[in-house]
């Protein structure tokens, strides 16, 4: 079970790649659990909707025996275009 009160490391991704898998494994080994943020996009012209992108991540990490909700969680984020210091 994902432990919300423990330290987590964020990963912000658009399309999951082998490089993301490598970064995930390093981060998981260092921090212990990972929160993967998927940026929301305009679905009308995107062949890879949220569920397909989410499915790809779960499938790729599942091949390495990482379990969603235990080792990581996936959260959709709004289409944030920039970060500003307040």
Rounded radius of gyration (Å): 13 Å
H/E element sequence:
EHEHE
Give the N-terminus to C-terminus distance in angstroms: 34 Å
The main sheet comes to: 3 strands, parallel
Helicity level, as a percent range? Answer: 25-40%
- What structural class results from the helix and strand content? alpha/beta
Q: Beta-sheet strand percentage?
A: 15-25%
Low-confidence residue ranges? none
Mean pLDDT: 88
Say how many strands there are: 3
**Coarse shape:** globular
Domain module tally:
1
- Count of helical regions: 2
Could you give the order of strands across the largest sheet?
A: 1-2-3
Provide tags for this entry.
globular; 86 residues; alpha/beta; three-stranded parallel β-sheet; 3 strands; 20% strand
Task: Give a verbal description of the structure.
The structure is a single chain. With 86 residues, the chain is α/β, with parallel strands linked by helices. The protein has one domain. Strands 1-2-3 form a three-stranded parallel sheet. It contains two helices and three strands; from the N terminus they run βαβαβ.
Topology, please?
Elements: E1 9-13, H1 18-31, E2 34-39, H2 50-62, E3 72-77
Parallel strand pairs: 1-2, 2-3
Short description:
This protein is α/β, with parallel strands linked by helices. The chain has one domain.
